[in-house]
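Running this now, will post back.
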Amino acid sequence: MPQTDTVILDRAASKVDVDANFLITCLAEVLESCGDSDLIPYLPWRGQEPKAVDSLPVGRGEALLQVLSFCFQLLNAVEENVAMQARRWREDGQGLSAERGTWAMKLRRALAQGLDEGQLREAISTCRVEPVLTAHPTEAKRAAVLQLHRELYVLLFEREYGLWSRSELQDQREAIKGVIERLWRSGELQHEKPTVR
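Update: finished.
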């Protein structure tokens, strides 16, 4: 039975909660091993209310800012993974043309409006398509950091398979914690706004 958009959204929201909790729990374990356990009570999405920022020890404001920024990066990784999962669920249940903004949806709409194959070919032949690549210096990341984000995404994706043994799941968890630790230790927080140069 095809899943409705409401079912897919509910499933996706639940998955965001579970996966964010998992990554933040991994981060808490990394912080513990790195000697930053004082930051753990301030972490969001762990299934409990984070500690109030005004209770932070003196001199730990920058570290807290970095860990909260890092939490949002982890949440972004979760959301990207879940968005791709939701797209797969929608395509599996409703077909390729169910995904908004795709060529399949646009072609289905054109055919529903009465255009035939010849008219579509003619219209498409007059289109000019140009890729536009944009980057902003405040969004720039080092190549090594981008590679770690990709590695984390792949590890999250691999967790989707339900065929893993307990020891394999533990190995995946340790691999994820390893990526999180390398990202944490890279200290991505910028003290000055980067320039284009």
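The longest helix spans residues 61-94. More later if anyone needs it.
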